[in-house]
Specification:
The complex is a heterodimer of chains A (116) and B (113). Chain A has no helices and 11 strands. By secondary structure, chain A is mainly β. Chain B has 113 residues and is an all-beta fold. In chain B, strands 2, 6, 7, 8, 11, 12 and 13 form a 7-stranded mixed sheet that branches. Classes of the chains: A mainly beta (116), B mainly beta (113).
């Protein structure tokens, strides 16, 4: 059974940093593109970033470029999102998802709250 | 960026009746080299992550009931629930993967009338 489990969400002040993690199981993690998608409270879905299997290609939504960094460690079946210079508008549930086209499996999400 | 616009924002349908959700992209998401529409549909129930329902505009994901169907091509797409069940109450999102940045529709809330 494919599982994705996120962690690392927390309450952080504007300008602060946070690192999210996602551990995958039940599939060959290193054979898939992986993505982060977020959802602000009561709002819709927003793709944040994704990364190729070997890390050779990385893409970000404009609003996080220069502030967020996606990375992965295939030996640990793990995906990461380093978030710096956090803003109030980054408040959201952050989901880890598998895929580069459709996202066929999603984690349960981890909540990031940016507030003073 | 490709803008995805869903309609309606919400709809209420009686149990057993048909529900239809529309999704329009700001440019064609039909890739000529493979004749595929780069569009997916997701269902999200309260407090849960999204679940893939349909990909390539009309292919049902594994385990998805056949009352869910997707259609359309180019810029206009439709998700149809042929006979609404109580467990289908959810938000539904379309998603284009033709171009980066990937973008989603704003969502459609489906309720029971």
């Amino acid at each position: 059974e494919v599982q994705l489990v996120e962690s690392g969400g927390d309450l952080v002040q504007p300008g602060g940093s946070l690192r999210l993690s996602c551990v995958g199981s039940g599939f060959t993690f290193g054979s898939y593109w992986m993505a982060w998608v977020r959802q602000a409270p009561g709002k819709g879905l927003e793709w944040v970033a994704y990364m190729k299997e070997d890390g050779g290609e990385i893409y970000y939504v404009d609003s996080v470029k220069g502030r967020f960094t996606i990375s992965r460690d295939n030996t640990k079946n793990s995906l990461y999102l380093q978030m710096n210079s956090l803003r109030v508008e980054d408040t959201a549930v952050y989901y880890c998802a598998r895929g580069v086209y459709d996202f066929d499996f999603w984690g349960q999400g981890t909540l990031v709250t940016v507030s003073s | 960026d490709i803008v995805m616009t869903q309609s309606p924002d919400s709809l209420a349908v009686s149990l057993g009746e048909r529900a239809t959700i529309n999704c329009k992209s700001s440019q064609s998401i039909l890739y000529s080299s493979d004749n595929k529409n780069y569009l997916a549909w997701y269902q999200q129930k309260p407090g849960q992550p999204p679940k893939l329902l349909i990909y390539w505009a009309s292919t049902r994901a594994s385990g998805v009931p056949d009352r869910f169907s997707g259609s359309g091509s180019g810029t206009d797409f439709t998700l149809t629930i042929s006979s609404l069940q109580a467990e289908d109450v959810a938000d539904y999102y379309c998603h284009q993967y033709y171009h980066t940045p990937r973008t989603f529709g704003q969502g459609t809330k489906v309720e029971v009338k």
